[in-house]
Amino acid sequence: MFAALFSLTVTLYAAILLFFILGLFSTRESRTENQPFVSIVIPARNEKDHIENILQDVTHQTYPIDYYEIIVVDDESSDITSNLVNAFSQRYPNVKPMSSQEGSPHLKNKKRALDVGIRASKGEIVLVTDADCRVTSRWVETMVSYFTPDVGFAIGHSQVDSNETLNQQIEALDYLMLSAAARSTAQLGVPFACTGQNLAYRRAAFDEVGGFSSFADSLGGDDNFLLQAVRRKTSWEIVAALDPNSFVRTVPCNSRSEFVSQRIRWASDSLYFKEANPLFFIVIVTTFLANLFPVVFVIGLIFGLGSLSPLINGLAVKFFAEGLMMAKATRLFNNRDLRKAFVSWFLFQIPYIVYMGFTTLTGKSTTWGGRQS
């Protein structure tokens, strides 16, 4: 019975990955040359090592300088982040420093900082990235080009910037697989997820769903919950930005424990999708079970229960499906060098996803920007 459940689960999981792969073949997109006023909003907390890099990037864009503003919201930094931003604002008049302390006490952490910036923004289009990211000189121009009249939300791609160590390669590949799934489902018209490191949406769409108010108590929500709110509550189209000039790079985690903690934080509100997007919730549960069953099988074998063949067969199907997804994603995003980390990632993700799942269910707190969440 248990072997049959594992077989059924891994078959469903493989079918989901094949669905994602199908979406990665889609190149459907529409572009515009319109140049509306844009507001770039960057939340920053203790980012003294990175803030000048992203500000250097966003102040040197191909987009007309009179057509965009840069709002940097300091989120209670204890270092010199705010001083560095203030210094930049003296040289670049379109850089506008703000503080999250001006925001609503009902919003948590990053959402409060973003809300402050968005509420103060003047742009028709809001562009969001993180303070530890890097963008191309055509980032604004390219992201804005996806806003044809019916589009209200554009999902951008982000990737880990360094692949020097095995840990970084595993993190980069893991992130690539997540980003590939986000791009695929958006292309197929059923957007599941996005990243707050590279997002764009109409201010009108943000206001139409009430901003972050409907999920104010959640730890996350500045990206995925907002995406689902726009999908469910408005008629705006949601698209993926396919042009490499729109891609964003982010720094890797400092350690494997920081990486796992980050993923736990991302997964902390998974139960929300049970109502917000039942199809995505099924994907989340199936992914968890497809990684849980092998662990249970191994424990059973240690105690002399069950047989080895169902485990080998199930892992083979999982390996093959994930390998196909990895091959397509690394080719699509020009990250073929990450293929050498696939076996390590495959072995690592099983215990990490199981641990992440149980930690999420038990409500264990995580650290975010030096704050306990």
UniProtKB/TrEMBL annotation:
Transmembrane segments: 6-25, 279-305, 341-358
KW Membrane (keyword) present: yes
Record carries keyword Transferase: yes
All copies of domain Glycosyltransferase 2-like, residue ranges: 39-209
Keyword tags: Glycosyltransferase, Membrane, Transferase, Transmembrane, Transmembrane helix
MF-aspect GO terms: glycosyltransferase activity
Pfam annotation, one family: Glycos_transf_2
PANTHER family the record matches: POLY-BETA-1,6-N-ACETYL-D-GLUCOSAMINE SYNTHASE (PTHR43630:SF1)
Name of the protein in its database record: Glycosyltransferase 2-like domain-containing protein
